[in-house]
Amino acid sequence: MKVSKALVESLLSEGIEHYFTVYAEHIMSLIIDSELSKLLKPINATHEPGAGFMGIGYSRVSNKAGVCVFTGGPGVLNAVNPIASAYIEADPLIIIASTPPRDIAYKNALHVFPNDTDQFNVFRSITKKQFRITSPEQTPQVISKAFNEALSNRPGPVYVEIPADMFDSIIDEFNYVRIQPSKPTPSDDVIKEVLRMLSTSKKPVILAGRGVTIAEAENELIAVAEFFDVPVCTTVVGKGVIPPTHPLYGGIAAGSLGDPVADELLSNADLVLAIGVKFSQMGTGRYSMKINGDLIHVNVEADDMNRVFKATIAIKADAKEFLSKLLTIAKRESTEKIYRGSKELVSKLWDRFKTSLVQSPRKGDLIESWEVIEALRSVFDEDTIYVCDVGAHRIDTYTMPAYKPRTYIASASYASMGRGVPGAIGAKLAKKDSNVVGLVGDGGFLMTGLEVITGVRYNVPVIIVVFNDSAYRVLGIYEKVKYGSEFTYRLPHVNFCELSKSLGAHGIRVERREDLRNSIEEALSLAKDKPVVVDVVVNPETIPIPMRRLYKANYISELNRK
Fold first, then answer.
1. Residue 75: left if φ>0, alpha if ψ -120 to 50, beta else—which one?
2. Cα dihedral 372, 373, 375, 376 sign
């Protein structure tokens, strides 16, 4: 069996159906054997950053590791940005990269570095682990170890390097053994202390992050919340771990950028149980989040603890392992189900703050970002997956409800622009039966929007909604607040509808408020076998609703230098 075929069989053994790449000479053998298998489909992106973000989108929705295959040198180095994003944001990726054929590597070969460790060393600081295949027989074992590393403990990207000529080498015997990912488990003594603190607390609150989603612990989270009668707030990227219709749902906690209900609950809590939370700059509303009581911080990675808030107890544990054990020991210790009146408290808070949740009045004829989000939510069902790029529109989505896990895909830490269009394509390939909507600003589309043609090529019917304000709107807000000027945020006027049509996709242009909902319904009806791009011209002066609480203004023109 050739090494290239062994790689195909190894990926299939891990349940992988697609990998993301840009076709190149050095990886051609693997691409051909993948196509011949008819079970493993290489997706040829237009540029390596797009392929990397497709891998992340695929991983976020499937809860598997995304796989990317790149030629060495300019190929894999083009993908450094999404690989770094995966490392910062705990997205499992397998990066398979070639090096030049061994017999010509030191003859100024194509894509070669001066030293054979140079390319390898680039990825030491942005991947969890790095492997080099030095003999054909190592192939299945290395790939199995790579998947185990990518998915164990805190997930992340793993780099695997292979010489281009080795793809055609022969393996005498292929034997692939999957390794079960490891998850840290808390001790009984620690759980008993948590149980004691929860039982004696007067006003506890659970803060649930994406770590709950990664661990697939949504059911356990709700069971714990109901058993101890504790309100549940979520981080921005943790949306969907508890339905917003649940009576214990306390909203999005992101300080001034989050829901005022969540801010009130956290500020007044005597105990906060934070599970799978990173406490990032944007995730805490630029550190405006307030935690005044005791903090129990449960996280799969100890290095994420005590960076922003000092924990009373810091517990290194997988969310599912922690929550399951908490319930088990509570029942074993004959702890009675607690009633604190939390449902009534949460209901009163939502009623109290309902006036602050009303969207702002419209200014002029231009469509507001929040109107686009409201229209999307009114047209699409609760199973729809939203993949957010970075920008003002993403901050406006903080107010958008997510009803199910893995239906709201966003970045709150590394926050690289350009993830929206390719991420939506990757998400759709992972969940073909769900509607997938990519939400992207014009700045993000200008970075990776040509990946629409990848969706056309592979018949991936995603719906891409462009918030077209001809501006880097968030940048404009920061510039106006800090410097009082308006130099950096204007972008050229682009008709993304016509651009998308030229790429082979459907294109819809929306300039009038009265056409918005009908245009979104039209996009849904057109999304059958290729992408639909909805180019919505929005007000470039509007400050996203969550940021209005931070800056006390509705429009950029109202901002004064601080």
1. alpha
2. positive
Pick the CATH number of 188-355 from 3.40.30.10, 3.40.50.1860, 3.90.550.10, 3.40.50.1220: 3.40.50.1220
CATH no. for 3-168: 3.40.50.970
Show me where the domains of the chain are located.
3-168, 188-355, 359-558
Asked if pLDDT for residue 384 goes beyond 70, the answer is: yes
Banded model confidence at residue 548, pLDDT cuts 50, 70, 90: confident
Which has the closest alpha carbon to 42: 76, 7, 74, 73? Answer: 7
Is CATH 2.60.120.200 correct for 359-558?
no
CA distance 353 to 350: 5
- β-strand partners of 99: 163
Segment 320-343, tens digit of pLDDT: 999 999 999 998 887 788 899 999
Cα gap 468→262, rounded to integer Å: 31
Alpha helices in 412-458 (DSSP H): 420-430, 442-448, 452-457
Average the pLDDT over each of 234-248, 350-364, 495-509, 510-524 and give the range with the smallest value: 350-364
For 517-531, what is each residue's pLDDT tens digit? 999 999 999 999 999
Instruction: Place 183 in a pLDDT band, splitting at 50, 70 and 90.
Output: very high
- Write the DSSP symbol of residue 38: S
Closest CA to 157 of 59, 225, 22: 59
